[in-house]
Design brief:
mainly alpha, Rossmann fold, single chain, elongated, disordered N terminus, 118 residues, 5 helices
């Protein structure tokens, strides 16, 4: 597994992760182990960034949506015709926790394969 914490210079930074399932948050925390990660629900200062994914293929997502007959109608409504992968959510969280996103605040980051755009 790549060392994303080092890649994004996140040592000592705090990652605010909201709107993600506990499974995704746990996976992100595992990637960032040792990088001082805080998982929070709300930031009263208004600087909170929320990650709002569509279905993500964590173990729970695979269990719930693994039946292609059940998943196909939902995927058909997503422009990319697929569900998200945990690493895609982790990459967004790492970007939002990095200095590169310092000017982004108070936003809901939709990561849904284009579903919200149609």
């Amino acid at each position: 597994m790549p060392d994303y914490a080092s890649r994004f210079g996140l040592h000592g930074k705090r990652a605010l992760i909201t709107g993600a399932s506990k499974g995704i948050a746990a996976e992100i925390a595992a990637v960032l182990a040792g990088a001082d990660v805080a998982i929070v629900g709300r930031d009263v200062a208004g600087l909170c960034l929320e990650i709002a994914p569509t279905v993500v293929l964590t173990d729970m997502g695979k269990q719930t949506w693994g039946d292609e007959a059940k998943a196909a109608p939902v995927k058909a409504r997503i422009p990319l015709h697929r569900f998200g992968e945990p690493i895609e959510i982790a990459d967004l969280a790492l970007y939002l926790a990095s200095p590169a996103s310092d000017f982004i605040c108070g936003q809901v980051m939709l990561i849904d394969g284009g579903y919200s755009a149609v």
